[in-house]
Amino acid sequence: MKILVTGATGNIGRMVVDHLLAGGADDVRALTNHPDRAGLPAGVEVAEGYLRRVSSLPAAFEGVERMYLAPMLETIDEVVSLAEQAGIRHIVDLSGEAHWTPIAEAVENSGLEWTHLFAGDFIENATMWADQIRSSDEVGDPFPEVESVPVAMDDIARVAAKVLLSEGHNGQTYQLTGPEVLTRADRVKQLGIALGRTVTVRQVPRDEAIAIFARVMNNAEWYVEATGSMVGWHPQPSTTIADVTGAPATTFAQWAAANTALFQ
């Protein structure tokens, strides 16, 4: 069974490749826009292509039975149409609600078998505070009380690989979360614990927050507004990652302890 991983050199796609190989897959094709510097494992078939460059996809889709579809809104209709024409049987997409809904809708409307992976706040988003933590024991943040259930990218990849390698997932929408609800202040505190320091949060006004985050992201104003819209929301953790893979989701503390170098 040939499995195609799109976005195979992206953060999650690369992990999907690794988990497929660890799970026993022996016919993995990886789609990348830069094969010369992809650095993919031996035994992986490398296909040059990019979801935004639709003309590159027919050759990459040929002979594929199952596909991990990285989130790409701009060309989703063309990509799904080409997948159908190529005879791909099952699409496992990383999508979600709100902004990402068109991906899930296009995949469902294709008539192919599908599994949706919905993920919210990535644990790795904590690196937005890295510069502040490197230079100070205080982090400026606009909404320290906002709650989320951050999920590790590697856990998303584990689920994707499991679904691609097994049966019984057609028509399922998997809500992927971490194992615990944390405020933004909780996460900063846990980063400090991992680093052996006390790191606190100072709530800052909107304009100051935008200026802080503009140093590390391109969409700082949108990010601050989106975070503010979550005030008063109380999310709940799911057990989906453990249910699908047989291993529990990564805690924020575990991730922080393993990634202290990012904050030093």
Task: Characterize the structure shown.
The protein has eleven helices and eleven strands. The protein has two domains: 3-119, NAD(P)-binding Rossmann-like Domain (Rossmann fold, 3-Layer(aba) Sandwich); 123-150 and 179-234 and 247-263, UDP-galactose 4-epimerase, domain 1. By secondary structure, it is α/β, with parallel strands linked by helices. The protein is elongated, with a radius of gyration of 19 Å. The mean pLDDT is 96. Helix 7 runs parallel beside helix 11. The chain is 37% helix and 17% strand.
Strand content: 15-25%
Number of helices: 11
Number of domains: 2
Largest sheet: 7 strands, parallel
Structural class: alpha/beta
The appropriate CATH architecture of the largest domain is 3-Layer(aba) Sandwich
* SSE topology string: EHEEHEHEHEHEEHEEHEHHHH
Shape: elongated
* Cross-sheet strand order for the largest sheet: 3-2-1-4-5-6-9
Task: Please give the alpha-carbon distance between the first and last residues.
Answer: 44 Å
What Rg, in angstroms, do the CA atoms define? 19 Å
Residue share in helix: 25-40%
Task: Briefly say what this structure is.
The protein is α/β, with parallel strands linked by helices and 264 residues long. The chain has helices at 11-22, 57-61, 76-86, 101-109, 130-135, 153-165, 184-195, 206-213, 220-228, 240-245, 252-258, and strands at residues 3-5, 28-32, 45-48, 66-69, 90-95, 113-119, 138-141, 147-148, 172-176, 182-183, 200-203.
Overview features:
2 domains; 264 residues; alpha/beta; Rossmann fold; two-stranded parallel sheet; single chain; UDP-galactose 4-epimerase, domain 1; 7-stranded parallel sheet
